Structure to design on (295 residues):
């Protein structure tokens, strides 16, 4: 008997088929199945694009009051307020970029040797060491940052860029170390052995073979750290405010004051680099590197 006829009436499992196939099997196909699929697609589209659409509307709105469904007046007056030379957005943007770049440099300076050691050396309790970098993510951020802020107050570091960079580094190290370890693990050991066989020392082998081969993964690691730092709010609020105001803090303050136009414009400024860098990450972070994360 033809196997295709044996399975013709069997229900489609969502594990082995697409969601559309599973939904079509559950609804019996036809008009009902088509309407059900359309409804599911619409719901998912509203969940994903609804908040983004609302944010885009507020970014170009000048007047929008209840009970009007849509804005009563569109314009770019609030964009002018955000980007005017005397505004605080430019200073907040500068703070955000400087802190994010310094955080990336600091994280990679620590993560590259740590990742290479975890990938190549037979370290005891290697899995435990990797797990320790997840500890800052396992505890609530607010009590941790409050205690860090108290320590920085005692040392006179509160409200300084280095203090904010240290707090951001605490969150960024998990991305930096884990992805760096995976990137060095994906490097072919035979290439390193071949370099050693023709007379290259350990340092030269690292800089000519290991580091260039792992460079795409390190780029992706730096991008994740950059985006994490760019969007970080809680640590900056407790350690840097009011001397240092980044874009997330400016967005929070505008939202609390009910100035949704300024908050939406600031959110767009944070969204654009995230979307652009995700395309870069997709290009550099290959499947073999992803498969080695956490191993």
């Amino acid at each position: 008997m033809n196997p295709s006829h044996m399975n013709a009436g069997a229900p489609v499992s969502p594990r082995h088929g697409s969601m559309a196939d599973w939904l079509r099997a559950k609804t019996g196909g036809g008009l009902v199945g088509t309407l059900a699929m359309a409804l599911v697609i619409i719901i998912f589209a509203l969940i994903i694009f609804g908040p983004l659409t609302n944010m885009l509307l507020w970014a170009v709105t000048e007047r929008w009051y209840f009970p009007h469904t849509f804005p009563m007046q569109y314009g770019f007056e609030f964009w002018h307020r955000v980007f005017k030379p005397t505004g605080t957005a430019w200073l907040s943007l500068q703070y955000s970029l400087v802190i994010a770049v310094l955080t990336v440099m600091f994280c990679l300076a620590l993560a590259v040797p740590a990742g290479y050691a975890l990938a190549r050396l037979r370290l005891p309790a290697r899995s435990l060491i990797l797990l320790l970098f997840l500890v800052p993510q396992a505890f609530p951020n607010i009590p941790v940052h409050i205690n860090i802020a108290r320590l920085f107050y005692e040392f006179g570091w509160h409200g300084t860029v280095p203090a904010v960079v240290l707090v951001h580094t605490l969150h960024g190290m998990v991305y930096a170390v884990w992805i760096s370890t995976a990137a060095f693990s994906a490097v072919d050991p035979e290439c390193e052995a071949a370099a050693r066989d023709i007379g290259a020392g350990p340092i030269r082998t690292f800089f000519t073979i290991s580091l260039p081969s792992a460079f795409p993964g390190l780029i992706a690691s730096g991008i994740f750290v950059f985006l994490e730092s760019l969007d970080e709010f809680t640590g900056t609020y407790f350690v840097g405010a009011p001397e240092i105001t980044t874009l997330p803090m400016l967005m929070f303050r505008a939202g609390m004051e009910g100035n949704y136009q300024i908050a939406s414009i600031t959110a767009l400024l944070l969204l654009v680099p995230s979307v652009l860098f995700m395309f870069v990450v997709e290009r550099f972070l290959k499947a073999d590197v992803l498969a080695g994360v956490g191993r």
User: Anything to note?
Assistant: Confidence is low (pLDDT under 50) at residues 1-14. Residues 7-59 form one domain. The longest helix spans residues 89-120. The first strand starts at residue 61 and ends at 63.
